[in-house]
Amino acid sequence: xxxxxxxxxxxxxxxxxxxxxxxxxxxxxxxxxxxxxxxxxxxxxxxxxxxxxxxxxxxxxxxxxxxxxxxxxxxxxxxxxxxxxxxxxxxxxxxxxxxxxxxxxxxxxxxxxxxxxxxxxxxxxxxxxxxxxxxxxxxxxxxxxxxxxxxxxxxxxxxxxxxxxxxxxxxxxxxxxxxxxxxxxxxxxxxxxxxxxxxxxxxxxxxxxxxxxxxxxxxxxxxxxxxxxxxxxxxxxxxxxxxxxxxx
Length: 248
Description:
Layout: E1 2-10, E2 13-18, E3 21-27, H1 32-41, E4 46-51, H2 52-57, H3 63-72, E5 76-80, H4 86-95, E6 99-102, H5 104-108, H6 110-120, E7 125-132, E8 135-138, E9 143-148, H7 149-158, E10 163-168, H8 180-189, E11 194-198, H9 204-211, E12 217-220, H10 222-225, H11 231-243
Parallel strand pairs: 1-4, 1-12, 4-5, 5-6, 6-7, 7-10, 10-11, 11-12
Antiparallel strand pairs: 1-2, 2-3, 7-8, 8-9
Helix pairs in contact: 1-3
């Protein structure tokens, strides 16, 4: 299982939200590139970048930041937030991102993602589902839909998708513990999926418990910035998972 560090960017700064609430933004003193270099220099392998402004406006804005991080580090970078056009996807793929998380359009325009996956590959185009009690949220989590994550997973599975990013919005940034029942139920319903879980990680115990679900990855954000988990602990945990052959 991959342990994936996270950088959320708003107005050029590294920030953390609580339960997706833009009124509860906490800024960090380091800029995104500096933070990525800190992760890289401390042995971290994976980085998830979210353009929060882009997710709200519907236009990805962090091309330069992503390019600098890829050029200056050895991190395997995935990105999300406002990726809603073919031109954006092409530019990010050319920049060297590992895969792209598509949120709003994965809910509102699934057929477009089917086309993008045909062109760029199913491992490059990753549907990103932000969930509030199993119901999907769009437009930077600010709009809740009546669509169930289970229904969309079933549709995408039939169309050849296997890797998905799934975030529990209600727990994201709360450090209240990851919702093991929620993610466990998803794996039980769809045992062939590679699910990247996000939302609520507060301790190493959470990561160990998630690894027991055989997920593809888990995103760790606020717990790092609040020093609930150290970078060195994450590195050691990733090494232990690799040694035990549990890394997907």
